[in-house]
Design brief:
This protein has 91 residues and is of the alpha+beta class. The protein has one domain. Helices cover 15% and strands 31% of the residues.
Length: 91
Amino acid sequence: MLDYNYCWRRHWVEKWPGQNVKNESIEEFITRFPSVKEVMIDGTERPIQRPQDQQKQKDHYSGKKKRHTSQHLILTDRERPVLVLSLMTRG
């Protein structure tokens, strides 16, 4: 059974939510993974050391986790554990 945060997608979104995702367009992803027909998209927060700069502390603080985190978007399918791991975005 899948967790409610997981979602199987059979369609694509024009731009991924993160600004620094390596595969930003549908065409790039399909070119790189032509056999993939469905993917699971999940977001995760990874703990980081508290930044010294006060503005960066605010930017990276996660109210959900109650700590400073970085966020990543992960795409996976049934055969491979991770197809795409986005670059870090603030928590």
